[in-house]
Specification:
This protein is of the alpha/beta class. The protein is built from 20 helices and 15 strands. It has helices at residues 20-34, 46-51, 53-61, 96-105, 107-116, 133-140, 152-166, 205-214, 230-239, 257-261, 269-280, 300-312, 327-337, 339-342, 356-360, 374-382, 396-407, 433-444, 448-467, 473-492; strands at residues 11-15, 39-44, 66-70, 123-127, 144-147, 176-177, 186-187, 219-222, 244-246, 287-291, 317-321, 347-351, 365-370, 387-389, 410-412. The strands form three sheets. The chain has a seven-stranded parallel beta sheet with strand order 3-2-1-4-5-8-9, sandwiched between helices. A six-stranded parallel beta sheet has the order 12-11-10-13-14-15, with helices on both faces. The chain has a two-stranded antiparallel sheet with strand order 6-7. Helix 16 links the parallel strand 13 (365-370) and strand 14 (387-389). The longest helix has 20 residues, at 448-467. It is globular, with a radius of gyration of 22 Å. The two termini are 29 Å apart.
């Protein structure tokens, strides 16, 4: 373990948004910081802490100074069902406002515990969605560093889109180029996040409050690495007075299989063993892994096109079916259509949580069909995966542009518009099975185009690994961040 001189003793307080896809990179970040001799305090609620107990206990057992501070989640007070402590387990998207109300109610409880904490908090690294931390950091006179699970490419796109929106320059229906970017990036309004393309369930006052709090931040940590998007990192740093620290890919802090397997929800060892045996039966780079994220709710109509597109590609595949809301009609179709039985020789269906990092690292996987959430995108890049892109909502269409047009490691299935969370049953431009099959074949093809894409993906994967090694770009960036917080307190005392 690399130990740094930390005088005064540093205690980084990490406050993630309570959702698996937001907590996972924060837990990874905690491990990276603790390996540098820093005390790390992770702020969570009891049910979220349970999901990460195995990984955190293993890190603590190895000598890392990681502590978990549990806040009682005010579900009842916010009008939520008991046990709804995470965004990914809400019974319906109509509860989003209640969920954010509950998040706001955590402030007093958190501040009381921070007041008693030893060593004293040196800084707060918080999810950008937790706006009250701006006030808390000012009360404690410590830096507040925001963590937004997006790339610098997407951050810059969003910044420029906000300028266009303020000037009322976003066209309603025709494609347009996002201005002042290093590359020509074309989008339509229908493909933009809710801030620019609101759905009927939009809760605009919450994003407005979050954006206002962002302007008060000391700096930003990004789950990316310098070599992945150097021109975009440079431009984003200019916007943030240089205080942008790129410390990813965070998933690479998990260098043993138990940690890779237990990021998020638990999966039984029987299922893990069964999956490994199935993957071991296939030749290298022949299997397509298809997963549309922990929050994505795909309609039954679109699931059918995805499933049939995978079947008609003639590639062996793993298909993840999200548990919960919307699963019942999907299971009915699988049963009535005979899909699982018909494809059992070359298809493996996973219900619920998937061991994504572990799966992507298996030699048999040759392509990743993804919703383009940034965690998944970066995990695919790290695993040297060429990707089949099917963005669903939020900033995912921007991530798709980055993969397809900047990195040139992705191939789009042709999705045309955002399906806002909670509005997936509304009529949308649909992706059909032919487009899915066509994109899969392009990515899995070993001819020139497919080979060039695969070669670029492998080069990026190797660079990603080096970024976190000693003296790699992300390793150095983390050193600079720790030293800056150290100097902040030395100058203050």
């Amino acid at each position: 373990m690399l130990k740094m001189i930390t005088e005064p003793e540093l205690n980084f307080v990490l406050i993630p948004l309570l959702a698996a896809s937001h907590i996972i990179p924060m837990v990874d970040m905690a491990k990276l910081l603790a390996r540098r001799g820093v005390t790390v305090t992770l702020v969570m609620t009891p049910l979220n802490a349970i999901r990460f107990t195995a990984v955190i206990d293993r890190a603590i057992g190895s000598g890392l100074l990681i502590r978990v501070l549990e806040l009682q989640f005010p579900a009842k007070e916010a009008g939520l069902p008991e046990g709804c402590e995470s965004a990914d387990v809400l019974p319906a998207l109509a509860f989003r406002r209640n969920f954010f109300a509950a998040i706001d109610m955590l402030q007093d409880q958190a501040e009381n515990l921070l007041q008693e904490m030893k060593p004293k908090p040196s800084c707060i690294i918080c999810d950008t969605h937790i706006a009250w931390t701006a006030e808390t950091a000012e009360k404690f006179q410590i830096p507040r560093i925001i963590f937004d699970g997006m790339s610098c490419f997407t951050q810059l796109c969003m910044h420029n889109l906000h300028i266009m929106k303020d000037q009322r320059n976003i066209p309603e229906s025709v494609p347009f180029f996002i201005p002042d970017l290093p590359d020509r990036i074309e989008v339509t309004k229908a493909q933009l996040p809710g801030a620019f393309n609101p759905g009927t369930l939009c809760i605009q006052d919450i994003p407005d409050k979050i954006r206002a709090a962002e302007t008060r931040a000391y700096g930003v940590v990004i789950n990316t690495f310098e070599e992945l998007e150097p021109r975009y990192i440079d431009e984003f740093r200019k916007l943030k007075n240089g205080r942008v620290w790129c410390i990813g890919p965070l998933s690479l802090c998990n260098n043993d299989n138990p940690d890779k397997a237990q990021r998020g929800n638990k999966v039984s060892f029987d299922k893990e063993d069964c999956l490994k045996k199935w993957l071991d039966s296939w030749q290298p780079e022949t299997v397509v892994y298809a997963c549309l994220g922990s929050l994505g709710r795909i309609t039954i109509v679109q699931f059918v096109e995805l499933a049939l597109g995978l079947e008609e590609s003639d590639c062996p595949f793993i298909l993840v079916i999200k548990a919960g809301e919307g699963q019942a009609p999907i299971e009915d179709w699988i049963s009535e259509n005979g899909f699982e039985k018909r494809t059992k020789e070359r298809g493996f269906l996973i219900r619920g949580w998937a061991l994504q990092v572990l799966i992507l690292s298996h030699p048999a996987i040759g392509g990743f069909l993804t919703h383009c959430g940034w965690n998944s995108t970066l995990e695919g890049i790290t695993a040297s995966m060429p990707m089949i892109t099917w963005p669903l909502f939020s900033e995912q269409f921007l991530n798709e542009r980055f993969l397809v047009h900047v990195l040139k490691t992705g191939e789009s299935v042709g999705s045309q518009g955002v399906m806002h969370l909670g509005e997936e049953v509304k009529p949308q431009v649909q992706v059909n099975k032919k487009e899915v099959t066509k994109a899969i074949k392009k990515v899995m093809n070993k001819e020139k185009e497919g080979n060039d894409r695969r070669k670029r993906a492998k080069e990026l994967g190797q660079i990603a690994i080096k970024a976190l090694e000693n003296n790699g770009s992300s390793h150095l960036s983390l050193t600079i961040l720790i030293k800056e917080i150290q100097e902040f307190h030395l100058n203050k005392s």
